[in-house]
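Exam revision sheet. Question 4 asks you to relate a sequence to its structure. Input first:
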Amino acid sequence: MAQLNIRNLTVKFATATGSFTAVDGIDLHVDPGEVLAIVGESGSGKSVSMLAVMGLLPDTATVTADEMTYDGRDLLRMSRSQRRKLIGREITMIFQEPIASLNPSFTAGFQIEEVLRLNLGMSRKQARARALELFTAVGIPQPEEKLKSYPHQMSGGQSQRVMIAMAIASNPRLLIADEPTTALDVTIQKQILDLLMKLQEDYGMALILITHDMGVVAETADRVVVQYKGRKMEEADVLSLFESPKSAYTRALLSALPEHATGDRLPTVSEMFLREDAE
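Answer key, structure tokens:
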């Protein structure tokens, strides 16, 4: 069974005046069938870490690691062709803002059929039949009609379901979901999270869930990695993290949950973190 192992991952971006470190020595792993949440504020390096795994960072990025392996295969030493055979088949990713990820010039059906034809070598007829199965599996209403729809003709929740369908099309063993409920209303957020968890269980996939929402972490994760400014602050199983967080930053994140509000305004996570750090 495949496992992702990362040790001492560092990502630096070239700038006009030198370089900027976005990820600074991160260690993490995810086991087969496990749900790992990577949590932290915006800018903590969560998405960059996973884009490094996917090989999707721009040329301005320099990625180094003591280890970055999947199923014993070295992701950093793979050729581009070897990596293309792995990414999109065994490892897939759901990106933030589905509307921005879908091509507005093509129907949703065409886009998922292209994934099936390119990655799995299906004929047009096979790809159309499989696309219909996938749209049905992710709960898109009137799936035959929605295959013919363009992204702008679909709601945000429907577009996200299309992205999920594309991500599971090749029966991946590892699915990375980057803030999959961003910009969706609360009811749709729950539907999408419930769908992801059902698919994870049905397909037996490992799931890495990138989020800033500790409520989502509590409902979904087996284990949690907490990041802050590119560094790992803490790693624990979800129960231990909520019952006895070890780092000041994790405690600040938990204290920022709405149920802990005592006045007109919750202090920011950074305010609480700095306050506790000073104490």
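Marking note for examiners. Residues 247-279 form one domain.
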